[in-house]
Amino acid sequence: MKTIEVKTGRPYNIYIEHGLLSNAGKYVRNVSSAVRAVIVSDSNVAPIYAEAVDASLRENGFETSLFVFQAGEERKRLSTIEKMYSHFYEHDITRTDIVVALGGGVTGDMAGFAAASYLRGIDFVQIPTTLLSQVDSSVGGKTGVDLPTGKNLVGAFWQPAVVLIDPDTLSTLPGKFFNDGMGEVIKYGCIRSRSLFERLEKENAADIIDDIIYESVSIKKDVVEHDERDTGERAILNFGHTFGHALEKLYDYSGITHGEAVALGALLITRITEQKGITEKGTSDRLLALLKKYHMTTSTEFTLPQITAATRGDKKSSGKGLNFIFLREIGTCFINKISTDKINDYFCGE
Ligand SMILES: NC(=O)c1ccc[n+]([C@@H]2O[C@H](COP(=O)([O-])OP(=O)(O)OC[C@H]3O[C@@H](n4cnc5c(N)ncnc54)[C@H](O)[C@@H]3O)[C@@H](O)[C@H]2O)c1
């Protein structure tokens, strides 16, 4: 068992262990004296894993209920949250009860947001079952839903009471979602850990998945502890994301996955900063090779001017500018704010 303590305003532990899911109840009991626990899961994950989690919660004295929504980003909407609230109400969930998010990032973000807002806030637990949610979204307390006008536009910071990562769940995860998580893992290597990047180059990620999860979560924990509310350093976690979000928008949120878009965004921006002499020569070629190794998209039919135009309205805009994350070399990055009216010139000019 690996344990990581996250020292945010409200501290919590992250446990990583094979088979942890069927012991979930014990760990939830350690952080909660709740009478009732609501498992929130999606239509793909619930049939595989909800029974084991439910049994373990019951063994540990919780009265349980299960809320299942149709899987997919399209359901990450306020309409689903409203159904969740109704379920909570019908099952007599009180302020001292607990929500258990069992699934990927969509489940965690929504269950977390419902927990943050129902009765002005009840506890929740993250049991992430995708690589992306294990290395990224389950840690750090960002919760929320999409609006028709953009992703994650409504949300709240709400830290989980505990995060339970069981790498065994990845055995049922479709390959394309595994690769999607790899986009975030590669990001961590780029911004903070040359050694992680080099291991990904030399070894096969699936063979060292426990180490990858541990190291990725440790990097995220570190950054989140320094900047829980995302007003400074946490921006480095957005390496590749500004172009990535623009690409997702251009593909109408269907032609490219989030992780792929982020990885491609990272590649495009690093090519430019390398040409400008900001990033060490050869970095973008190494990144390209790594993306190819993990079967990720490495090109797009959209042009740079189209991509920079699509960054307009990015929710990470602040004041009159947008923060871009540039690499100095693999493992080292910095934040560079560019004013909105200069973005096109900066990236598309000579
Ligand atoms: N809160 C944050 O800090 C943060 C960070 C990054 C991303 N996100 C959000 O995370 C979401 C993406 O997360 P995701 O990629 O995990 O998506 P997801 O939750 O939709 O999961 C991907 C797919 O895998 C299925 N699935 C999940 N676990 C499975 C398993 N073990 N076996 C079989 N199938 C399984 C799901 O049903 C779904 O079809 C986006 O909405 C994004 O905005 C949030």
Any chance you could write out the topology, listing elements then pairs?
Blueprint: E1 2-6, E2 12-16, H1 24-31, E3 36-42, H2 46-59, E4 63-69, H3 78-90, E5 98-103, H4 105-117, E6 123-128, H5 131-137, E7 142-147, E8 150-157, E9 162-165, H6 175-192, H7 194-202, H8 209-226, H9 241-250, H10 258-275, H11 283-293, H12 304-310, E10 321-329, E11 332-339, H13 343-348
Bound molecules: nicotinamide-adenine-dinucleotide.
Description:
This protein is of the alpha/beta class. It has 2 domains: 2-172, Rossmann fold, CATH 3.40.50; 179-348, Dehydroquinate synthase-like - alpha domain (Dehydroquinate synthase-like, alpha domain). 43% of the residues lie in helices and 20% in strands. The protein is built from 13 helices and 11 strands. It is globular, with a radius of gyration of 20 Å. The structure holds nicotinamide-adenine-dinucleotide (NAD).
